[in-house]
């Protein structure tokens, strides 16, 4: 096992500059996806004929743009690069999270993120090939139904809800104290602009945390009632906000925050400290 790890580390050192560039392209690609979600939701809130959607739905919308297929193939590379970066963070631990409980939890999160974005990269490739992919309506509920059929399915679904709420709380915590700034290197950015970029990050990360919290609460409700149809994703969470009192305002605010999150991903592509290896 240690020999295999050493081989991976040596290979990573040889290609570290390329991996860093790929990781940065990955952050930018992630920003395009979330920016699309934010723009569509904001357009809907303003009465411009937009829609609520999620990451897969955003990719399907991007396919409809001029040269959409070419853009999607670029996103395949970018999302795959982001997935690889997350997997490297999990396995090689270049940021020295360590093997204590806190560090292992973070690295497990990177691993899950890597798998999620690798899946999204594959989906983008399927969308780029005309007519080969579609977005199932509320696929989260379908997945939840499969989980509930497993032994202890309600417990598993409830744990998923708890994990999402914990991640959401962490997002709020990071946003409030702008703790994400320790990963940034704004060496060539004036102090006044650094403050603006920090605010963009705080708004974006907060909006992302809110959506995760809503999804997490619905997961807990589904587990409690043993009813998979309750489970929602990002698209349904945005739609749920719109149905609340002052829903257009709520949707607009969270949509703007999601757009900021996409912009923050692009800012990370430019200024984040990315250390692939020591």
How many domains?
A: 2
Portion of residues in beta strands equals under 5%
Q: Helix coverage percent of residues? A: over 70%
Computed Rg:
19 Å
In whole angstroms, how far apart are the ends?
Answer: 20 Å
**How many β strands by DSSP?**
0
Shape: globular
Summarize the structure.
The chain has 278 residues and is mainly alpha-helical.
Name the descriptors:
278 residues; mainly alpha; 75% helix; 0% strand
Question: What secondary-structure arrangement, pairings included, does this model have?
Answer:
Layout lengths: L1 H13 L1 H30 L9 H9 L4 H24 L9 H28 L10 H10 L4 H25 L13 H35 L8 H9 L4 H25 L7
Helix pairs in contact: 2-3, 2-4, 2-10, 3-5, 4-5, 6-7, 7-8, 8-10, 9-10
Describe the structure.
With 278 residues, the protein is mostly helical. The protein has 2 domains: 1-133 and 266-278, no CATH class; 139-232, no CATH class. It is built from 10 helices and no strands. It has helices spanning 2-14, 16-45, 55-63, 68-91, 101-128, 139-148, 153-177, 191-225, 234-242, 247-271. α2 packs antiparallel against α10 and α3 (55-63) runs parallel beside α5. The chain is globular. The mean pLDDT is 88.
């Amino acid at each position: 096992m240690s020999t295999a790890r050493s081989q991976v580390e040596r290979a990573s050192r040889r290609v570290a500059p390329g991996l860093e560039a790929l990781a940065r392209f990955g952050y930018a690609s992630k920003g395009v996806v979330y920016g699309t979600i934010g723009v569509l939701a904001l357009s809907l809130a303003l009465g411009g004929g937009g829609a609520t959607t999620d990451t897969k739905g955003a990719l399907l919308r991007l396919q409809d743009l001029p040269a959409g297929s070419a853009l999607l193939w670029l996103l395949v590379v970018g999302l795959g690069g982001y997935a690889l970066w997350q997997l490297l963070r999990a396995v090689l631990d270049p940021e020295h999270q360590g093997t204590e409980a806190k560090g292992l939890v973070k690295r497990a999160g990177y691993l899950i993120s890597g798998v999620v974005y690798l899946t999204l990269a594959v989906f983008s490739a399927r969308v780029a090939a005309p007519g080969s992919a579609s977005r199932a309506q509320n696929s989260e509920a379908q997945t939840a139904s499969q989980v509930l059929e497993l032994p202890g399915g309600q417990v598993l679904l409830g744990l998923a809800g708890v994990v999402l709420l914990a991640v959401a709380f962490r997002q709020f915590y990071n946003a409030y104290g702008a703790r994400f700034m320790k990963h940034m290197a704004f060496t060539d950015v004036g102090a006044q602009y650094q403050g603006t970029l920090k605010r963009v990050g705080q708004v974006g990360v907060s909006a992302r945390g809110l959506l995760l919290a809503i999804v997490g609460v619905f997961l807990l409700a589904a587990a409690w009632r043993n009813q998979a149809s309750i489970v929602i994703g990002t698209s349904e969470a945005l739609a749920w906000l719109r149905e609340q009192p002052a829903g257009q305002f709520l949707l607009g605010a969270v949509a703007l925050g999601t757009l900021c999150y996409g912009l923050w991903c692009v800012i990370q592509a430019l200024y984040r400290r990315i250390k692939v290896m020591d």
